């Protein structure tokens, strides 16, 4: 139908569906391979840390999930901006599809962070600035998803959630600094900090990279699959509407 | 002053396309009466003309900066008096004096009364008096004569006629015979059906092969 | 804009309910705290700044769903949107009216309620100052949340869910100013940061609020 090809043409639902269909199985398989290799390697074939023992191995879940928790929000921000500026429906639906994946990543990061911290703090939860920030991010995700769920008209929902995502991003960054300010020096950061030089030696580092790649691929595969579902739902709705009016 | 021109307008309510291909041209001093059954999209069309919602397709000129929109929900506050309510909208629109508007709709005796103590018809007259204060030349009125008695309908018709006489434009959605010389536009023929849904801002998700 | 603001204040005062309600709510929250944690000043005094800030924040939240909902119901919001006033101005005026009817009275009442919680004397002034500087941000953020949910039938609970996480920076800096004031510490940095948050909200949020309103109206 259209002869001109650009990146934006993939924002057409039909084209998007056709392009992602063959991609999805490969992405999923690759994600699974990376995760299995990275996690098995990390859990069973790396030495224990001289200070933290085997507890340190939780970084293979904690670091990638924390990374993706933030990246998922960032992706939603970019997708929201594309929707607000260029009105590409797929973009709005991709943002919607990413939120539940992002909130799950945040939850995994929170739980693994608490598990990691418990032997050091002697308690399951301490108001560590880093963990607290993730808790706040978790609340932002909840609000974003609740707003999507509450609005009936999909385009109105896309508009309002996009505005919320924009404003929320500013406040999320602000909260990060506020939380640092609020709890500065209460915990000596170094013991839990993810500073590569200090805490993560090479033996840990390479399997960690494999795990991160696995989480990135997993995220992309999940978001694509969910976006495809959202597109199908919208199409079903549109066709039903046409049927009813006939 | 140019007229109100709609070209190939398509409107939707809650994502459902209602009307498509609506075109008309109302010259200064003329009125247009919209007819059609309930739910066909009269209110949605008026809101689109007022610039309160974007059209699905097509164009409206001018875009709403010259129009005053009057619906059954008239924005009058129950606890404020008639004069206070009108005074607020007058300042907002930069109109000085509310006396002519009070006089035009016979509200002089009620000026100190709180809006919540007005009868339905008096309340309606208050809402219509606001139209005069906006100073806008395009009046968009949604069922303006609901709960008005015969004398008030006549008074309203006079106000519209005076407005048209000043070179104003009025678009009214009503089924009541007002005795105003006006063109009628039956919206029935613009109704979006299954056969026409693809044209004029059809849903992008309904196009293409089903996967 | 001034006219919208003064009309909203007049409406709030005349309707009675909304105006006094948040103050009464604030009082009740503060009175309930000692029943929960015990009456000893040694327990109450250290947590007083935080409790008072939290109480004021929740009291602000109480009247937020009325900011646009009433105007939406009676059609005034449509008319405001078509009036020759920028919607950003409407948003700012609405937030201003909300602050004058909740944030300001709460700030002025807080020092008196602080007595109930045994807040040391120098803290009273700084508590009021922190609230005066911080509550405008609460009203602006809340107005933004109200604009997002104005088209929804049961938006009240959702509004709280959206707005409360956005309150985090204001609460942190505001309560810190009050705490440092009570302990006689230097409070320049948090006060400056609190002011910066409020200034940023004044400058930016009316645009987001107006954008949300435009979408909600259609």
UniProtKB/TrEMBL annotation, chain A:
InterPro entries: Cyt_c_assembly (IPR002541), Cyt_c_biogenesis_CcmC (IPR003557), Cyt_c_biogenesis_CcsA/CcmC (IPR045062). Its main location: membrane. PANTHER family: CYTOCHROME B_B6 PROTEIN-RELATED, HEME EXPORTER PROTEIN C. Pfam families: Cytochrom_C_asm (PF01578). This is Heme exporter protein C. The lineage of its organism: Bacteria, Pseudomonadati, Pseudomonadota, Alphaproteobacteria, Rhodobacterales. Keywords: Cell inner membrane, Cell membrane, Cytochrome c-type biogenesis, Membrane, Transmembrane, Transmembrane helix, Transport. GO terms for biological process: cytochrome complex assembly. It comes from Palleronia pelagia.
From TrEMBL, chain B:
SMART domains: AAA. The keyword Transport applies. PROSITE patterns: ABC_TRANSPORTER_1 (PS00211), ABC_TRANSPORTER_2 (PS50893). InterPro entries: AAA+_ATPase, ABC_transporter-like_ATP-bd, ABC_transporter-like_CS, ABC_transptr_haem_export_CcmA, P-loop_NTPase. SUPFAM superfamilies: P-loop containing nucleoside triphosphate hydrolases. GO terms for biological process: cytochrome complex assembly. It holds the Pfam family ABC_tran. Residues 4-210 form the ABC transporter domain. It comes from the Bacteria. The keyword Ion transport does not apply. Keywords: ATP-binding, Cytochrome c-type biogenesis, Membrane, Nucleotide-binding, Translocase, Transport. GO terms for molecular function: ATP binding; ATP hydrolysis activity; transmembrane transporter activity. Coiled coil: none annotated. This is Heme exporter protein A. It comes from Palleronia pelagia.
Automatic annotation (TrEMBL), chain C:
GO terms for cellular component: plasma membrane. InterPro entries: Cyt_c_biogenesis_CcmB, Cyt_c_CcmB_bac. The chain crosses the membrane at residues 12-37, 43-64, 99-119, 125-150, 157-178, 190-213. Keywords: Cell inner membrane, Cell membrane, Cytochrome c-type biogenesis, Membrane, Transmembrane, Transmembrane helix, Transport. NCBIfam families: ccmB. Required for the export of heme to the periplasm for the biogenesis of c-type cytochromes. This is Heme exporter protein B. It comes from Palleronia pelagia. The lineage of its organism: Bacteria, Pseudomonadati, Pseudomonadota, Alphaproteobacteria, Rhodobacterales.
């Amino acid at each position: 139908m259209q002869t001109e090809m650009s990146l934006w043409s993939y924002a057409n639902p039909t084209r998007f569906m056709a392009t992602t269909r063959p991609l999805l199985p490969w992405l999923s398989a690759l994600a699974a391979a990376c995760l299995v290799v990275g996690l098995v390697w990390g859990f069973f074939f790396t030495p224990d840390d001289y200070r933290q023992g085997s507890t340190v191995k939780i970084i293979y879940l904690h670091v990638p999930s924390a990374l993706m928790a933030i990246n998922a929000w960032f992706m939603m921000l970019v997708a929201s901006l594309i929707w607000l500026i260029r009105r590409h429906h797929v973009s709005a639906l991709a943002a919607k599809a990413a939120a539940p994946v992002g909130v799950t990543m945040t939850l995994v990061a929170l739980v693994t962070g608490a598990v990691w911290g418990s032997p050091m703090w002697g308690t399951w939860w301490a108001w560590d600035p880093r963990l607290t920030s993730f808790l706040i991010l978790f609340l932002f995700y909840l609000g974003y998803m609740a707003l999507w769920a509450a609005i009936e008209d999909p385009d109105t929902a896309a508009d309002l959630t996009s505005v919320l995502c924009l404003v929320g991003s500013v406040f999320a960054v602000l909260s990060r600094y506020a939380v640092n300010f609020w709890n500065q020096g209460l915990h000596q950061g170094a013991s839990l900090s993810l500073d590569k030089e200090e805490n993560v030696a090479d033996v840990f580092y390479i399997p960690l990279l494999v795990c991160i790649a696995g989480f990135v691929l997993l995220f992309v595969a999940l978001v694509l699959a969910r976006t495809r579902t959202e597109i199908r739902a919208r199409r079903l709705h549109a066709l039903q509407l046409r049927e009813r009016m006939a | 002053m140019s007229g109100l021109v709609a070209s190939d307008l398509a409107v939707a309510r809650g994502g459902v396309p209602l009307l498509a291909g609506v075109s008309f041209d109302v010259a200064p001093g003329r009125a247009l009466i919209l007819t059609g059954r309930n739910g066909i999209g009269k209110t949605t069309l008026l809101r689109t003309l007022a610039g309160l919602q974007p059209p699905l397709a097509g164009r409206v000129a001018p875009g709403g900066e010259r129009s005053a929109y009057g619906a059954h929900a008239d924005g009058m506050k129950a606890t404020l008096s008639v004069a206070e309510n009108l005074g607020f909208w007058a300042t907002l629109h930069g109109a000085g004096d509310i006396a002519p508007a009070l006089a035009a709709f016979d509200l002089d005796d009620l000026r100190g009364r709180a809006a919540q103590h007005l009868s339905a018809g008096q309340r309606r007259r208050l809402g219509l008096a606001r139209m005069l204060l906006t100073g806008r030349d395009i009046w968009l009125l949604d069922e303006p004569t609901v709960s008005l008695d015969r004398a008030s309908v006549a008074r309203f018709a006079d106000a519209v006629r005076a407005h048209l006489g000043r070179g104003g434009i009025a678009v009214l959605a009503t089924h009541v015979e007002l005795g105003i010389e006006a063109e009628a536009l039956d919206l029935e023929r613009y109704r979006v059906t299954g056969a026409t849904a693809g044209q004029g801002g059809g849903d992008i998700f309904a196009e293409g092969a089903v996967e | 804009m001034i006219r919208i603001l003064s009309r909203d204040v007049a409406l709030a005062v005349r309707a009675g309910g909304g105006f006094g309600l948040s103050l009464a709510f604030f009082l009740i929250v503060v009175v309930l705290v000692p029943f929960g944690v015990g009456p000893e000043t040694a327990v109450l005094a250290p947590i007083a700044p935080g409790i008072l800030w939290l109480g004021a924040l929740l009291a602000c939240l109480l009247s937020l769903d009325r900011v646009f909902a009433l105007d939406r119901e009676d059609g005034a919001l449509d008319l405001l949107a078509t009036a020759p006033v920028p919607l950003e101005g409407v948003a700012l005026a609405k937030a201003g009216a909300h602050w004058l009817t909740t944030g300001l009275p709460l700030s002025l009442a807080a020092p008196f309620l602080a007595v109930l919680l045994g807040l040391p004397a120098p803290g009273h002034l700084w508590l009021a100052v922190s609230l005066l500087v911080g509550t405008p941000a609460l009203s602006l953020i809340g107005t933004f949340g109200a604009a997002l949910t104005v088209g929804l039938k049961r938006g009240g609970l959702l509004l709280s869910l959206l707005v409360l996480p956005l309150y985090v920076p204001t609460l942190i800096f505001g309560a810190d100013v009050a705490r440092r004031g009570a302990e006689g510490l230097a409070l320049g940095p948090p006060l400056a940061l609190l002011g910066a948050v409020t200034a940023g909200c004044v400058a930016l949020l009316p645009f987001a609020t107006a954008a949300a309103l435009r979408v909600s109206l259609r």
